[in-house]
């Protein structure tokens, strides 16, 4: 934090095709920096960094309001319709080192769809991919964002009943990241109040981690 009245949070969004990963980045930034639309193929093919303006009214320190700045790195999906796993991994790893190599990463946001089941193979492949990117301490620096929660609500699931009915594949993943998860209502994700709630939850995760950052280096294999 160069300025005691400002706090900069570095985030990366990871996830599968059509989970709403880029849309999450846009919602957090309050912008339309990242291309996001329905498509039969993967939309994002490279990494892109978005920066927010100063955000007020989210957090305080020592009784004084802090201005929050976000830096969000959008990434290609894995699996990808046009890129191999190695291409996606190396692209993301290089971008992480380039953008956050000095300041460090506060959180990786693993984006999953609340309205689709998480199968064992998908979970294992996803976890392996995140581990390869972030290293052995990935669990401390990863939070799960469950998008399309509005569709789960339409089906009659509250957050509590959803988790009660969720498969062990999802529950074990949430447990491994110390239950750092957020349900995102896609219909409300652009509403200012909803954005503030999500940002406060993310800051709480970072606070629980004692504001530690993950330092990343780009090592070619």
Walk me through this protein's architecture.
This protein has 221 residues and is an alpha/beta fold. The chain has helices at residues 21-29, 85-100, 120-134, 149-154, 159-165, 168-176, 192-208; strands at 6-15, 48-51, 55-61, 64-74, 107-113, 142-147, 181-183. Strands 1, 2, 3, 4, 5, 6 and 7 form a seven-stranded mixed beta sheet that branches. A hairpin with a 2-residue loop joins β3 and β4 (64-74).
Distance between the termini: 33 Å
Sequence of secondary-structure elements? EHEEEHEHEHHHEH
> In percent, how much strand structure appears in the residues?
15-25%
- Describe the sheet with the most strands: 7 strands, mixed
Pfam families: AIG1
Domain AIG1-type G: 6-221
Family: Belongs to the TRAFAC class TrmE-Era-EngA-EngB-Septin-like GTPase superfamily. AIG1/Toc34/Toc159-like paraseptin GTPase family. IAN subfamily.
Protein name: GTPase IMAP family member GIMD1
Fill in the keyword field for this structure:
GIMA/IAN/Toc; Rossmann fold; seven-stranded mixed β-sheet; alpha/beta; GTP binding; P-loop_NTPase; GTP-binding; globular; 221 residues; nucleotide-binding; 7 helices; single chain
Topology:
Elements: E1 6-15, H1 21-29, E2 48-51, E3 55-61, E4 64-74, H2 85-100, E5 107-113, H3 120-134, E6 142-147, H4 149-154, H5 159-165, H6 168-176, E7 181-183, H7 192-208
Parallel strand pairs: 1-4, 1-5, 5-6, 6-7
Antiparallel strand pairs: 2-4, 3-4
Helix pairs in contact: 2-3
């Amino acid at each position: 934090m160069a300025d005691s009245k400002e706090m900069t949070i570095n985030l990366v969004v990871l996830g599968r095709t059509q989970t709403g990963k880029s849309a999450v980045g846009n919602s957090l930034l309050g912008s339309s920096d990242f291309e996001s639309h329905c498509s039969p193929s993967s939309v994002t093919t490279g990494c892109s960094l978005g920066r927010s303006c100063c955000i007020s009214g989210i957090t305080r320190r020592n009784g004084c309001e802090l201005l929050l700045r976000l830096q969000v790195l959008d990434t290609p999906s894995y699996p990808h319709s046009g890129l191999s796993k190695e291409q996606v991994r190396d692209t993301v790893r290089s971008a992480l080192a380039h953008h956050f190599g000095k300041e460090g990463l506060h959180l990786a946001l693993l984006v999953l769809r609340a309205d689709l089941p998480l199968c064992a193979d998908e979970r294992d492949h996803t976890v392996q991919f995140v581990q390869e990117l972030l290293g052995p301490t990935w669990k401390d620096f990863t939070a799960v964002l469950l998008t399309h929660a509005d569709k789960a609500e339409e089906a009659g699931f509250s957050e509590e009943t959803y988790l009660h009915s969720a498969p062990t594949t999802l529950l074990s993943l949430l447990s491994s990241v110390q239950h750092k998860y957020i349900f995102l209502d896609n219909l409300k994700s652009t509403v200012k109040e909803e954005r503030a709630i999500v940002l406060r939850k993310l800051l709480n995760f970072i606070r629980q981690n004692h504001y530690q950052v993950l330092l990343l280096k780009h090592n070619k294999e």
